[in-house]
Structure formats: structure tokens, C-alpha cells
């Protein structure tokens, strides 16, 4: 077994693939539970009064959780190599700005932003945007002097800026720093603030929780007009990049860092012989946990979406008790890791369910504390699921598409809009997909086809080691 935690890659890959799928399915022929709770079909009008949770609402928090789980591996390794906290913090800030640029650039080059309806120019410019991202975020794969690599990278950035400032957009829109992809912008803020927080609290979990408590206090206090907490909440020196409200997603990223630390500790202490013995002796425990974690996710999605809150709470408690009885029987090797992940997931899940009545019920937007904690708890369960599949049973061949997509998520995120759609339109193939607009099953197949192509593109780039990194 290699030193890489494949379960983290698989969770990140699952998150990014389902993110693509949720945008590629023909939503207007789908049932409500196939869309975001607060933007239901067929009108897709945002309704802040709607509460509940669907599988689509889990996509983004699972990705954030995986981001936090990677901190002990990326940051911890660099600290062990002797890098200073100042250097790590500086790199986190630079990464945040690069992700913000990525968010602004791709948003300005989505075909529907360039023209309405889309035309030849919009498809070509989208393709140019996609291929221009390679020299910006990929290490040049050929041996050239460092000054040449830097020149190519900054030349790509300069060309991107010129393009954004000079081209025309649909509806008379002009270039604006404030017009960016909100998902990537939130990730940029977490890449900066969550990283810096972890750098200075790597060995102090209580300090991490202390910062979360302060953030929670300011978020709650900001509802009082005239308070100093409201002033802190509203203050932003760079409104196109940062708002205090973005920091609420620390409540997902930081629990993810706890999961990552548990996996790293297990990886440092495991022995190959112990892993083989565990696999031979206790497959029933592993299979039981696979079924249990899957059931927990499904039960909570059903219970919260249908507002069967009492049923959901009771069923969750029963399942958690069963799970705790299973994981506490074994106290060594990988079973200790499962115990930690399950217990942490149980805590955050129950905490989220206790918060459910607060703020009018669980919501993705505006995100409630119940949403943060419930999705964190379910993310622990999903990570445990993938740890059993990838790191225990070692089903690496069947999960390779998840792992490789998770290793190159930036490409997967934009490939559909900036590469696949333009190619399908330019080649005249896109009208063939219209036959899949008739009903929900065909609409799902539409999404699966496009998502599969995205996965193939991402896996190809990953095999070629064409990674987009910040």
C-alpha cells in the first residue's frame, strides 16, 4: 500500500463528480429531491423559506470537508520539512488570490455569459479559456529554464486579463471583479483562512474549536444592528474577494481537519501485516459499517427532506448506537481509526440535528448551523465508507475514477462548461442530447453521459500528470 490516503481522494472525487452530475442532469424534468432543496423544479425560483436536505446539498460540504482533511498531509508534511509558519501563511494567501482569479476568469468565460443565445464566438472563447488555464495552473511538463516557466505562466495571466478587459459580454455586461464563481470564491477563502488557522493550531485542537466559537459568536451577534460584532461582520477591505460571512464554512473544513489527522496518525502507525490480518479476520465488521454508514446518509436525507424530524432523530440514534457497539469491540489498527471517525461523525450529526429547529430549520442558503454540523457528520460517515473500500478492501481499480478525479478537481469542475459543451456545439452533436429531455430517466442519462465524459477528460489529464494546482 502506498503512503497516499486514497479514501480522501475518493471522497473529493465523489464530491466533484456529483457536483458535475447535479449540473448536467436535465433538472426541469426531475423530481424535487434531485435538485437543491431551495431551488425546486420546474420554475427554479429560490425560496429561502424551504428547509430540508437533498443529495445535491451534500456535494459542496463534502468537498469542503475533504479540503480540511487534506491539511494534515499537505501542511503537516511541509512543517515537518522545516518550513516556517510565515512561509506557509504567505503561500496560503497567494493560493487564495490564485483561486479567486480562477473564480473570476472562468465566470467571465462561461458561454452563456459571453452571448445569449450562444454563438460560434462564445464557444471558441470558452475553449480558449479552458486551454489557457493549463499554463496558469499546471507545472510545465518539459524541461525548460525556470525563467521560461515563469514567463509562460505570467504571460498566460496577462493574456487572460487582456481578454477579460477587452471582450464584450451578453446583455451589455462589462468586466467586474465582483462577478465570480461563488463556489470557487468560497473555496479561495477557505484555502486562505482555514489553512492559516490550521498552521497555527496544528497541535492544539482546543484552539481550533475556540476560534470556531468566536466565529459563531460574531455571526450570531451580527444580527444586532449597531453592535461591534455587526461592524466586524460588515467590514471588508476587498469586497470582491472576502466577506466575514464566508468564514462560516470553517464549521465544515475544521471538522475535516480532525478526520485528516486521524487518518494520518493511523497511516504512521499501521503495519502491513496487521492490515492483512484485519482484512482476513474481520470482513464482516467492515461490511456492517459500509451498510451502516450508507443507511445513515440515506435516512437523514429522507428524514430531513420530508420533514419527518422525529423519525429521523430516532432512527439516527438507533443506527448510531448500533455503530458504536460495532466499532468499540476492536481497539487496534484500522479499527481504532474507524472508531474515531464514527464517533466524531456521530457527535457532529447529533449536534446538527439538535440545531435543526434553530434558524427556522436546516437550510443550505442561507446556511444554518444545523446544515454545517449535519453535513460534517455525514461527511465523516462518507470518509469512513471510502476508507473501508479503498484503504481496507483495497478496491483501487473500481474506485480509480473517483481517486483520479479527486486528484485533479479543478479540471473536472470546468471541463463540462468550457470544453465539452463547446465541442459538442461546434461539432453539431449537441442537438442529439435533446432526445434525452423527455422524462426524468432520460434526463438522468443525459447527466450521466456528460459526467462520464468529464471523468474521462479528468482521468486522462491525471494520467498525463497534467495537474491544475494553486
Characterize the structure shown:
The chain is an all-alpha fold and 470 residues long. It is built from 18 helices and no strands. The protein has helices at 6-24, 56-80, 85-108, 111-114, 120-137, 146-166, 182-200, 205-221, 228-234, 250-269, 272-281, 283-305, 309-327, 334-355, 369-392, 400-406, 409-426, 440-463. The longest helix has 25 residues, at 56-80. The protein is globular and about 60 Å long. The model has no long low-confidence stretch (mean pLDDT 94).
Helical content stands at 55-70%
Order of helices and strands: HHHHHHHHHHHHHHHHHH
The tally of helices reads 18
Q: What characterizes the major β-sheet? A: none
Q: How many strands? A: 0
Gap between N and C termini:
28 Å
Averaging pLDDT over every residue, what do you get? Answer: 94
Structural class: mainly alpha
Query: What Rg, in angstroms, do the CA atoms define?
Result: 23 Å
> How many structural domains?
1
Shape, principal axes of CA atoms: globular
Beta fraction? under 5%
Which regions have little confidence, pLDDT < 50, spanning 5+ residues? none
Amino acid at each position: 500500500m502506498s503512503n497516499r490516503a486514497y479514501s480522501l481522494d475518493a471522497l473529493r472525487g465523489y464530491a466533484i463528480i456529483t457536483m458535475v452530475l447535479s449540473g448536467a442532469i436535465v433538472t426541469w424534468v426531475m423530481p424535487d429531491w434531485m435538485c437543491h432543496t431551495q431551488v425546486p423544479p420546474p420554475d427554479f425560483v429560490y425560496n429561502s423559506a424551504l428547509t430540508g436536505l437533498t443529495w445535491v446539498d451534500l456535494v459542496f460540504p463534502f468537498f469542503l470537508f475533504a479540503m480540511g482533511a487534506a491539511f494534515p498531509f499537505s501542511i503537516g508534511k511541509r512543517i515537518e520539512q522545516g518550513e516556517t509558519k510565515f512561509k506557509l501563511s504567505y503561500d496560503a494567501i497567494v493560493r487564495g488570490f490564485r483561486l479567486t482569479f480562477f473564480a473570476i476568469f472562468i465566470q467571465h468565460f462561461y458561454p452563456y455569459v459571453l452571448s445569449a443565445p450562444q454563438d460560434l464566438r462564445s464557444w471558441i472563447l470558452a475553449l480558449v479559456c479552458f486551454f489557457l488555464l493549463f499554463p496558469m495552473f499546471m507545472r510545465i511538463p518539459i524541461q525548460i529554464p525556470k525563467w521560461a516557466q515563469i514567463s509562460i505562466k505570467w504571460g498566460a495571466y496577462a493574456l487572460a486579463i487582456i481578454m477579460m478587459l477587452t471582450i464584450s459580454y451578453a446583455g451589455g455586461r462589462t468586466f467586474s471583479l465582483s462577478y465570480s464563481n461563488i463556489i470557487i470564491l468560497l473555496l479561495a477563502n477557505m484555502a486562505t483562512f482555514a489553512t492559516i488557522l490550521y498552521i497555527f493550531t496544528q497541535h492544539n485542537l482546543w484552539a481550533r474549536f475556540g476560534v470556531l466559537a468566536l466565529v459563531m459568536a460574531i455571526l450570531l451577534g451580527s444580527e444586532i444592528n449597531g453592535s461591534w460584532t455587526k461592524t466586524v461582520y460588515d467590514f471588508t477591505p476587498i469586497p470582491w474577494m472576502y466577506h466575514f460571512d464566508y468564514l462560516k464554512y470553517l464549521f465544515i473544513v475544521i471538522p475535516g481537519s480532525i478526520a485528516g489527522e486521524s487518518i494520518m496518525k493511523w497511516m504512521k502507525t499501521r503495519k502491513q501485516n496487521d492490515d492483512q490480518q484485519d482484512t482476513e479476520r474481520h470482513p464482516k465488521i467492515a461490511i456492517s459499517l459500509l451498510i451502516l454508514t450508507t443507511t445513515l446518509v440515506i435516512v437523514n436525507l429522507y428524514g430531513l427532506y420530508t420533514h419527518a424530524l422525529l423519525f429521523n432523530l430516532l432512527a439516527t440514534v438507533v443506527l448510531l448506537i448500533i455503530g458504536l457497539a460495532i466499532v468499540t469491540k476492536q481497539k487496534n489498527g484500522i479499527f481504532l481509526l474507524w472508531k474515531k471517525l464514527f464517533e466524531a461523525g456521530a457527535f457532529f450529526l447529533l449536534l446538527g440535528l439538535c440545531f435543526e429547529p434553530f434558524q427556522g430549520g436546516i437550510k443550505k442558503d442561507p446556511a444554518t448551523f444545523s446544515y454545517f454540523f449535519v453535513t460534517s457528520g455525514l461527511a465523516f460517515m462518507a470518509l469512513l465508507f471510502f476508507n473501508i473500500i479503498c484503504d481496507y478492501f483495497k478496491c483501487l481499480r473500481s474506485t480509480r475514477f473517483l481517486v483520479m478525479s479527486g486528484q485533479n478537481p479543478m479540471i473536472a469542475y470546468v471541463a463540462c462548461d468550457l470544453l465539452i459543451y463547446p465541442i459538442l456545439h461546434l461539432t453539431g452533436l449537441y442537438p442529439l442530447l435533446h432526445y434525452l429531455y423527455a422524462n426524468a430517466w432520460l434526463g438522468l442519462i443525459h447527466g450521466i453521459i456528460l459526467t462520464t465524459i468529464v471523468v474521462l477528460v479528468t482521468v486522462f489529464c491525471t494520467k498525463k500528470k497534467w495537474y491544475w494546482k494553486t
